[in-house]
Amino acid sequence: MEFRLNTFNIHELMLVVCDKLKELGVTNKASLLIYVTKEQLKKIDEDLFYRNRKSDDEEFIPSEGEIYVNFDNLTVIIREEDYKEEGS
What we know:
This protein is an alpha+beta fold. It is built from two helices and three strands. Strands 1-3-2 form a three-stranded mixed sheet. Strand 2 and strand 3 form a beta hairpin.
């Protein structure tokens, strides 16, 4: 089964996951790693930037290989499929 993620359904999905983790007693930071293509990462990165910027003066600077999205008890890492961490 395949489905497409965008910033709206990523956010909705992560809220459900956060609530479920709280129900299970996970109150510290858990992490979830999602792999996407380079093109998908760029689209998600830009979309998150423009939705969350505080001023029109802010300039978009692309992320390098991964994006961190923080929730109360969960950090979502959206990573490019071929991303190599420093030191790897």
